[in-house]
Amino acid sequence: MEPSLNRMTPETFQTLVNRGFHNFLYSEEDFILHYCLYHFLCHDSFDYHITDISKGAMNIVMAHLQRNQRYANWLIILKKELEFFNNPPLIAIGCRARDFLSKTGHFQLEFSLMHYSQNNSARFRDYYIQHSHKSLTGDLHIKLKEFAVRMLDDQNYNAQLKIEILSRLFNNELSIWKKGLFLKYMDEFSVTRN
């Protein structure tokens, strides 16, 4: 939808960007999304691109204000970005992105996913409970951390920035809602791939 400041001030966020930070490589949820895209949709390939409709970072409160108007203002840049990637098939993440992209008439969506926001944690938790017969290995958080290390290495993150990000991630077994997030994305990407 739009880059999140993740409870940072704009100055702190800009400093992070100046040090080499790339969007969608910060939270456990970001890396769960990447892992599922990589393994379950793209056949163990980084043949995908994640982007925001709006390119300006902001806090959550600001993001809810005048979203459609802001999206419309960024539409030309989004179109050019997609043209650069030869207009790939699109997957909307979240109903707000889905609804906006559908209403413009400029984009053909393959499908949409529930956004990985903590606001949806109860839905993901329920999905996990309903699908608890599917086994997830107890070391899933370790596999996700190893994947995060690989991604940050592939993005040429410097050692200090990499340590700052990784020190917060996947240090314990996933919570129930994040297991549900993983299962939901795994299932939806696997079905789409097939």
Instruction: Characterize the largest beta sheet: strand count, sense, and whether it forms a barrel.
Output: 2 strands, parallel
Shape verdict:
globular
Helical stretch tally = 9
* Contiguous runs where pLDDT drops below 50 for at least 5 residues: none
Question: From the alpha-carbon coordinates, what is the Rg to the nearest angstrom?
Answer: 17 Å
What order do the SSEs take from the amino end to the carboxyl end, as H and E?
HHHHEHEHHHH
Rounded average pLDDT? 92
The helix-and-strand class reads mainly alpha
Quick one: how many beta strands? 2
Give the amount of beta strand, in percent: under 5%
User: How are the strands of the biggest sheet laid out side by side?
Assistant: 1-2
**Beginning-to-end CA distance, first to last residue:** 27 Å
Q: Helical percent range?
A: 40-55%
How would you describe this protein?
The protein is mainly alpha-helical. It contains 9 helices and 2 strands, in the order H-H-H-H-E-H-E-H-H-H-H. It has helices at 10-18, 28-41, 60-63, 67-84, 95-104, 121-130, 140-154, 159-166, 176-193; strands at 90-93, 109-113.
Compact description:
The two termini are 27 Å apart. With 194 residues, this protein is mainly α. The protein contains nine helices and two strands.
Q: Could you outline the blueprint of secondary structure elements for this entry?
A:
Layout: H1 10-18, H2 28-41, H3 60-63, H4 67-84, E1 90-93, H5 95-104, E2 109-113, H6 121-130, H7 140-154, H8 159-166, H9 176-193
Parallel strand pairs: 1-2
Helix pairs in contact: 2-9, 6-9
